[in-house]
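Quick one:
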Amino acid sequence: MKHHLDFEKPIAELQRKLEELKQHPEKHSLDIRLEEEIQQIEKKIEEERKRVFSDLTPWQRVQLARHPKRPFTLDYIRMAFGDFSELHGDRLYGDDLAITGGFAQLDSFRVMVIGTQKGRDTKENIRRNFGSAHPEGYRKAMRLMRLADKFGLPIFTLIDTAGAYPGIGAEERHIAEAIAVNIREMMVLEVPIIAAVIGEGGSGGALGIGVADRVLILENAYYSVISPEGCAAILWKDRTAAARAAEALKITAKELWELGLVDEVIGEPLGGAHNDPAAAAATLKERLLHHLAELKKLSGSERLERRYAKFRAFGHYHENQPVTVS
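Output:
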């Protein structure tokens, strides 16, 4: 079943007409006329797609980041990595399926890849808690990262979560402490770390596996301290103001790059990664290899110094001079 967002409906309508024309050619007596009509509609679809996706609002990009057909972590692992061997459990409480990870191969490099994983249907979403990890998920991620550090393997993290799970059980098992430990420990791991936001990058849930030498983001992904709906509920007491909040938060890939919060924006196929997952995975793989090659030229101590300086530089602000009233 095809899923179309509101702003994609003009394109969907043209595609429907094109499919109908191809399925029922008997309605047209002349083959030449039919061929011309098909070509005209295909041209209109391409023009409409370029028009729509060349000027998306922040809220529309958030909707694309959440598209149910968008590639998830395991999709990218299958298409961009090889020889994936998944590892389970945090050795403390249990195995959280909202975070997946294990040994893998990226071209000639043996690596550790870890990421948040959503489900494709209701049953899988319940198993994976809609990609919102519990404390044991972050502790599993850190266990795998320490294993990678021990064996000198580069670490890749793929981020796609609305945020860490805020439920009572997660609080009882110290979700804030688990994320804080990950942030602290990722800062001192000596192996190269590359993080990529592939969909949603929500709050501390994303940052719990997001401290890296290079932070990349796909063109239609977002990275934010809070969801647009959550921000709207706090500031305007109305979750329907999410579009307004998305604009105010500066959460799109382009805005994050301009603010210096990400190192590269990775382009997607026209219309989003879900329109051509293989092409999106190939582009991501090429950029991961590019950054890994650069990071491997540095010593462990150099990477640590630059990683520390990178995150210490975040959070610039301007103060207005006090006004003197005479």
